[in-house]
Amino acid sequence: MASSFRIGVLTALLLTGLTMSPVLSDAQVVGDEAELGRLQSKAEDAIGNDDADGAAMMMGRAALLAAQLGKRETGWKTAFRKGQEALFRSQEHTYRAMALFRRAGGQLPASSGVCGSLALGHTTLTHVAEGKGTSPQDTRLLEEAGRLQESADNWQQMIDSLVAEYQCP
Fold this sequence. Notes:
By secondary structure, the protein is an all-alpha fold.
C-alpha cells in the first residue's frame, strides 16, 4: 500500500512536469542543455519503472553536468546552475533513500540510513535558495528561475511526504 502510494505521488509529480526541465530556445547551446533534459527524462522513466537506483544515477549525472556548466558560465547563470545542481543532488539523495528502503524490505519505520538520505536530500534542497542574488533582466531567465524554485518547492513536498510515510523521526 505504501509503495503504491509513493509511486503514485512520484508519477503525479513527474507527469505534471513539476521537475525542472530546461526550456530550449534557438539561441541556447543545445548540446549540454539537451543532455540535461535527456538525463532528467531517463530518471523519470526509471522511477516510472520502479528503478530508484537508476533514477538516482541519472540525477547524479545531471547534477554533475549542471556543476560543470556553472563553471563555464558567468554572472547570474552561474548561480542558476548551482541551484540546478542542488535540486538534482536532492533528487539523487531522495531516490537513493527510496531504493534503500525497498532493498531493506520496506519495513516501517525506515532505517536510519533511509532517513539520513532523506535528511541529506532536504539539506541539499535548501541550497537552491542560496543561489538567489540579483535577478536577471531577461524574462526568459526569470521564467527559468521561477520554474527552478517551483520545482524545489514541489520536491520539498515530496521529501516531506516520504519522511512521513517512512516514519522517520
